[in-house]
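A.,

Following up on our hallway conversation. Structure tokens first:
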């Protein structure tokens, strides 16, 4: 899988994507609109400052309580290249992978908004060269990298109709 490089956009701990990336709280609004106001309650102006290709850097338990795939679709619409956090809500983590969004678990301490962050999913290395930060993360398994490269589980299965789970 390719190296991911972008500007860091920082959020804190315990961010529930159910609240911040869901039409449940904005009835009648579509994903395009929600992408323009995502995370406003925890970081005013976050979505407006976010640029396609930026990396979302979060605190612990990002995506907690999230069983909605809509959150990942909205982050795709925002242009999120990857998400780095010390830990993720497990349902969100799996939804992200199934929908082709790289999620990397590592210490995010010392990374600031606007830092250029480089992620190597194959080796698990996360680097902010300007701050001399290098973090080790568990490398993403080859099967997960294949899903991400294909754009998610459904595109992967469409390209590999004979693939077998056993």
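Then the amino acids I'd put at each of the 166 positions:
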């Amino acid at each position: 899988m390719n190296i991911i490089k972008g500007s860091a956009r920082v959020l804190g701990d315990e961010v529930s994507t159910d609240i911040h990336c869901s039409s449940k709280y904005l009835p009648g609004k579509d994903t395009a609109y929600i992408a323009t106001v995502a995370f406003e309650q925890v970081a005013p102006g976050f979505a407006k400052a976010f640029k396609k290709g930026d990396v979302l850097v979060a605190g612990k338990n990002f995506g907690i309580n999230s069983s909605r795939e809509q959150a990942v679709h909205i982050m795709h619409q925002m242009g999120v290249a990857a998400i780095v956090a010390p830990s993720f809500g497990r349902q969100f983590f799996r939804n992200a992978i199934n929908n082709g969004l790289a999620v990397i678990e590592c210490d995010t301490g010392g990374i600031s908004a606007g830092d250029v962050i480089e992620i190597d999913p194959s080796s698990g290395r996360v680097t902010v060269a300007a701050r001399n930060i290098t973090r080790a993360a568990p490398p993403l398994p080859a099967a997960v990298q294949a899903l991400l490269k294909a754009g998610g589980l459904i595109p992967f299965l469409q390209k590999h109709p004979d693939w077998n789970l056993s």
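The first helix runs from residue 17 to 20. Curious whether your intuition agrees with the design.

B.
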